[in-house]
Amino acid sequence: MRVVRLLKPYEFQISEEDAPSPGREEVLVQSQSVGVCASDIHYYKHGGIGDARPRGPIILGHEPMGRIVDVGEGVGSDWIGKRVAIEPGIPCFECEHCLSGNLNLCPNVRFFGSPPIDGAFREKFCHPACLVEPVPDDFSDEMGAILEPLGVAIHAVDLIQPKTGVSTVVVGCGTIGLCTIAMLRAAGASPIYAVDPLEYRTEIALQVGATQVIAKEGKEAVEEILSLTEGKGCPTAFEAAGYASAHQPTLDMASIGAKVMIIGISAENHVSFEEGRARRKGLTIYMCRRSRNTLKRGIELISSGRIDLSPLVTHHFNLDQVTDAFETAANYRDGVIKAVVHPSD
Asked: Do residues 12 and 321 touch, judged by C-beta distance below 8 A?
């Protein structure tokens, strides 16, 4: 099978390797689609995310969808042929956090495509059978590549618990920001303001549920939000830009007593804001650790039509084009939102 490994920043290697054999209670999945995530791009451009750095070549990719082609001991043969979505976090199932249902907080978690665990940019991979979820026949492969970022958005909105009819602002309209907007719309938040300097992104924000868009950044965006809210700001605010420079503007858009969720992962690995301004406003600041038991909910939300995320998948590539996929996503080429690689094409 073909495998793509990141050797160092900006350098992939495609090679032929033997397909793995599923172990006990594992399934072998033929990878049909894999989304290129912003965290993948951090590895591609910077060689890591904060202190998470591979010690050697690594297979990236944690947003896969595929078809089961073999099963290990303890898994029924009726699973063969099923199309499945993947939960990329592999917890220990034994620690206090796992036993309390917070699998995303497991300190022993092994995460697909994050050192030292190889990910899904390959034709086949093994995964625990308990961490795959069958999808309906009419569920597209590319929507499978959206489920992981959608899961993060679901978890973020769950933590904030926005009130129906209360205004909110989302800063950053990449994949997770747009998924967050869709979830806020489904939760009844209104109005929903979407902020991003790239106009093509704000156009898609309107398609997935934003009430009004602001194609600005920094102080200009803050001034616009304050103007729209009679100088008060929004009771809930989400930072999904993935830049430390977006933290302060997001807090400045929040009203007194607001809840602020920081979702984005910045290359700087630091949260940056003026403590005094946040304290005087009495802000409650949240951070979102991946997703918490959201895979089934994400599948149901998409398959039922409650949310429509089809505008997010904008670009398709085969495995030989993986560098093009990453360059397109990293440099915001050609109106890209989500670039999807199809390893089996």
From this structure: no
Half-sphere exposure of 247 (CA within 13 A, CB side): 22
Task: Return phi, psi of residue 217, to 5°.
Answer: -145, 170
Write down the pLDDT at residue 49.
84
- Domains in the chain, CATH or no CATH each: 2-146+309-342 (3.90.180.10), 150-287 (3.40.50.720)
pLDDT tens-place string over residues 46-64:
998 877 889 899 999 999 9
- Categorize the per-residue pLDDT at 266 as very low, low, confident or very high, splitting at 50, 70 and 90: confident
Euclidean distance between CA atoms 210 and 264, whole angstroms? 19
Residue 131: HSE in the Cβ half-sphere, 13 Å Cα cutoff: 25
* Contact indicator for 193, 177 with CB cutoff of 8 Å: no
Taking CA atoms, 325 is separated from 10, 32, 317, 331, in Å, by 12, 15, 6, 10
DSSP state letters, 14-30: EEE-PPP---TTEEEEE
Quote the CA–CA distance of 113 and 254 in Å, as a whole number: 34
Q: Where are the alpha helices (DSSP H) in the chain?
A: 38-46, 96-99, 141-144, 147-160, 175-187, 199-208, 218-228, 247-253, 275-280, 295-303, 322-330
**CA pair distance 215, 200, nearest whole angstrom:** 9
Q: Which residues, in sequence order, are bridge partners of residue 58? A: 6
Let me know: does 298 contact 150? Beta carbons within 8 Å: yes
- Greatest pairwise CA separation for the chain in angstroms: 63
Interval 136-163 mean pLDDT: 95
Q: How far is CA 72 from CA 25, 65, 167, 305, in A?
A: 6, 19, 49, 35
